[in-house]
Amino acid sequence: MNSTTYSIPLAIGAIPPYLQFVAFGCVLAVGYNIWWALVSERRLPGFPVATLEGQGLPPKESYFKDASGTIASGLKAYAGPFQIITGTGPKIVLPNKYADELRNRPELDFNEAFRKDFFAHYSGFDGFRASLDNPTLIPSTLRVKLTQSLGLVTNHLVDEATSALHQLYGEDREWQSIAVKQHNLNLVARLSSRVFLGRPICRNEQWLEIAKNHTVDSFLAARDLRAQHFFMRPIMHYFMPHNKNIQRHYTDAKRIISTEVERRKIRAQILLEAGDKPPKVSDAIGWMVEMAGGKKVDYVAAQLSLTVASIHATTEALTIALLDLVSHPEIIPQLRKEIIEVLGDAGWSKQALYKMKLMDSFLKESQRLHPPSDVSMNRKVMRRLTLSDGTVLPKGARLMVAARFRDAEIYPEPDAFDATRFLRLLNNTSSNSPHHYVSTSAEMFAFGTIRCHGKHACPGRFLASAELKIALSHMLLKYDWKLDKSDTMPRFFANETAHMTNPGLKLMVRRRTEEINLDLDVDPDLIDVED
Ligand code: HEM
């Protein structure tokens, strides 16, 4: 036996047994990780792979260069389902004709599809984890409590818009150029936080920084991890700057929210001791505590989860709506007329928002032409599923369904912006029609799937609609808007399958005199509590 052959066993023998055990465990864990990643990121047999037409790129590069283009190539090349190769493995893309058949299928899971793309198992992603650990709490809180309180919430939003607009867009009667998306983000963060956490916190600068940045940092942290090699992700996530940011947000949010919860407890105690009934505070902290029914919940993570789901999407919708207004200024006087008629009659209420039918149609057209994504219904197949045409969706596969936002068969002149398109459709159909801004249908699912009873249609869409209508009413009556012709930057860009507006986008704004008073004339303390 030469020296090299017995030196290895000798060297292993010199390692203490507990370290040998740890080392063996590590080797097993690494081996399992590699095996699992290879299996789960392998192409799915039986589904053609789409790449960008005529570019000769490998599928994954094709996806990262232009995900929407890759999907469009697939839809053009194949009549049935195909796959794209994303940073976290293959996904099946199904043409829109499958949408109705797939909605509410028990074999498909929304949260599990989300888990893999958003790394909910890694530290820092507490907001994402909150919605997965307790998948019904937030959607049911929004569906039940928010819907019940929408009248009260309308007053809160108007009060917050009154205060925030003045501070954010100013009183200057000369034209000024502003970075409009940043301003809108500040506005939406305040409006949404008013509903989620109540009045003191929605104006707390530190919370607002978290609310604005947590969404962006969470998406960037997840995107950076998706772009990493799977093998490096468990280590790299500790060192990536966006991930460090989201961990810090959680710690800071915990301090702010715990202080507020403590403040409420003390106030309730004082009132109880004085023989009074503590008021029922109408915001998402109070609602979630009621809905959880004593179950242990991480309310800080749940608030971050709400923030991530809502603020970014609503800011995008508001920014795109403003862009559409300045690009089609002929609609501005008509919208102002509607706002004056509706609010001049009876003031702010849930019903007043419903009566803003032109605004509703305008928002839906804006969403149709610039949807957050060309695909929706991200799902994971939990049990093998055979579709009516014999297509087999294998267990473990992830899928998405293509929308038909610009399909000439459904929308005549599909590339033209027509603010009254959905108003006309609405007038020609029954009141329970799919043409309201908040309605979802098989073709038009910017708020998710499908018709009002689709299980995962966005439960926050009624709040989003209220925020947008209230914000736009104030913005249109109190301000003039126009394009900033010196701004030549691209207006939109894509992040994988998501489309978004350019954060540097500029618009011109100046203060005008509103025809009617839009501000609430009541003491804000009186509208903070439920009767
Ligand atoms: C214009 C703004 C918004 C858009 C475009 C939007 C869009 C969406 C979409 C596409 C989905 C996925 C549905 C599916 O895959 O079937 C979704 C889910 C969700 N949205 Fe929204 N959303 C918006 C605003 C909001 C707001 C304001 C909130 C919170 C108040 C919210 C909370 C949620 C939640 C909690 C889910 C997950 C639902 C579940 O797990 O069942 N969203 N949203």
From TrEMBL:
Belongs to the cytochrome P450 family. The chain crosses the membrane at residues 18-38. Pfam families: p450. The keyword Membrane applies. Coiled coil: none annotated. Keywords: Heme, Iron, Membrane, Metal-binding, Monooxygenase, Oxidoreductase, Transmembrane, Transmembrane helix. GO terms for molecular function: heme binding; iron ion binding; monooxygenase activity; oxidoreductase activity, acting on paired donors, with incorporation or reduction of molecular oxygen. It comes from Hypocrea virens (strain Gv29-8 / FGSC 10586) (Gliocladium virens). The keyword Transit peptide does not apply. Its cofactor is heme. This is Cytochrome P450 monooxygenase. CDD domains: CYP503A1-like. InterPro entries: Cyt_P450, Cyt_P450_E_grp-IV, Cyt_P450_sf. Heme binds at residue 458.
